[in-house]
Amino acid sequence: MLPLKIGACLRSQQIADHRDWLFDDARDLELQDFLSHDVLMADWKAAALEAKAALVGFSGRLGIHGPYAGLDIDNKDPELQALITRRFLVALQAAELVGARQMVLHSPYRSWYYINRMVKSGYEEDKLDRIHTILDPVVARAEEVGIVIVIENIEDSDPSTRRNLVDSFHSDAIALSIDTGHAHVTRHNFDAPPVDFFVRDAGDQLRHVHLQDVDGYCDRHWAPGEGDIKWQSVFDALSDCNSAPHLVLELRDKTKILQAFEYLKSLGLVC
Predict the structure, then answer these.
(1) Does position 156 have pLDDT exceeding 90, yes or no?
(2) Does residue 59 surpass a pLDDT of 90?
(3) What is the pTM of this model?
(4) pLDDT of residue 112
(5) Which of 55, 86, 101, 132 is deepest in the core (most CB within 10 A)?
(6) What is the C-alpha to C-alpha distance for residues 72 and 140, in angstroms, rounded to an integer?
């Protein structure tokens, strides 16, 4: 049922600027302090404790965005596979320390995959095996600590591919994330379906959504209303979702969070 409650993605240093809006209504929050190897290879515990201090009094649902730069979960090099697994496990430790219950990771399915998947026998299966090599230990640890890994669409042009990936783990510790802007860009550039179709395909596997607007050309991370996503259709689809996904504004300009909220509220979509 509409309207739906939404929150935002922030670094811990930015929480104070939006504290009343986030804390008073126990909104969803995604911490983006642990995106980079710079933090995870340094004193990540200190960073996590700083974030935890900024969260005192917060009672909403909390997640983190995990690292992704250079960390392809389809890497073919065994030495790099092990490194990527370790990096994700450290990020899980950070998530556990701050009290998060979700961690976002990026999809390994690029446009190259979709145009080449029938080139040779076993192409899809080999890719899936490599993904499991890297993620199996991460999902197992997530199960132990009660955190859900959510896989975000990047260049995914067929949403069912990522859904089938999640299903292949047979675990409640891995689910789906949708980035509305990414879905709309792939709609324009890679013949993907519209954003609401991504939501409906995910169904009850959907546990997390990045809300951002784009013009369809590139990944803008604009405030909703500044691009051309059809927000009514997106939220109609979300309202039919029984899994209560975290809904967070992921904007490049954090000063526009309340503007975005007010725009969606004026359409009767959020509260």
Answers:
(1) yes
(2) yes
(3) 0.97
(4) 87
(5) 55
(6) 19
Q: Are strands 7-10 and 246-249 parallel, antiparallel or unpaired?
A: parallel
Query: Count of CB atoms within 10 A of residue 151's CB?
Result: 27
- Sequence-separated contacts (24+) of 80-86 with Cβ below 8 Å: 81/130, 81/133, 81/134, 84/134, 85/134, 85/135, 85/137, 85/138
**Mean residue pLDDT across the chain:** 97
Q: Which of 191, 86, 102 is nearest to 152 (CA)?
A: 102
57 burial type by CB count under 10 A (0-12 exposed, 13-18 middle, 19+ buried): exposed
Q: List, for residues 89-114, the tens digit of each pLDDT value.
A: 999 999 999 999 999 999 999 988 88
Strands (E), the chain: 7-10, 29-31, 62-65, 102-106, 148-152, 174-179, 206-211, 246-249
Residue 250's contacts (CB-CB under 8 Å, 6 or more residues apart) are 8, 9, 30, 179, 181, 210, 211, 212, 221
Q: Has residue 174 got a pLDDT over 90?
A: yes
CB 98 within 8 A of CB 62: yes
What's the rounded Cα separation, in Å, for the pair 26 and 213? 24
Percent of the chain beyond pLDDT 70?
Answer: 100
Distance between alpha carbon 37 and the CA centroid of its chain, in Å? 18
> What's the half-sphere exposure (Cβ side, CA atoms, 13 Å) at 231?
24
CB 29 within 8 A of CB 22: yes
Q: How many CA atoms lie within 13 A of 89 on its CB side?
A: 14
The mean pLDDT value for 62-79 works out to 96
Contact 10, 254 (CB under 8 A): yes
At residue 60's C-alpha, the angle toward residues 56 and 61, to 5°, is 115
